[in-house]
Amino acid sequence: MPKFQISNFVSRLQDWKPQTKYDLIVSNPPYFQNSLKNPDKGRELARHTDTLSYAELIHHSVRLLNENGQLALILPAEAETEIRALAQNAGLHLTRATRVYSKENKPPKRVLLAFSIQPGQTCISPIEDTLVLEDEKGGRSAAYSELCREFYL
What we know:
Elements: E1 22-27, H1 41-47, H2 54-64, E2 65-76, H3 80-89, E3 93-101, E4 110-116, H4 121-124, E5 127-132, H5 142-148
Parallel strand pairs: 1-2, 3-5
Antiparallel strand pairs: 2-4, 3-4
């Protein structure tokens, strides 16, 4: 089994200058663009793209990834087209897109996107799938339960 090292640093992505590059960057970046601000400044900073735009996120992720690196993002569904275009323009290749629905008959709420620096077979035909979180009764769907089963008692 490969060894993984996970490190946590407090820094603006734009200012981060590590000694080495990364195999994988996973980000749940600020979501909201041009929307109503939260009165709590901490929440506003965490939720809005004012201090980290999608373009900056992509640019600095490419800068920080090694030659075989991958970028994984969770975003609002309405940001998918913009992020995919920014990533493509930066030389990233989409490998997977999972659209996340709260319920089957609703529009997607989130999208999980995975990109790689190197093109590969999944870049030619990326994996595209869906995940529905709730069943018709409002409980966890079977797919969501299976995905998270190791995290619940």
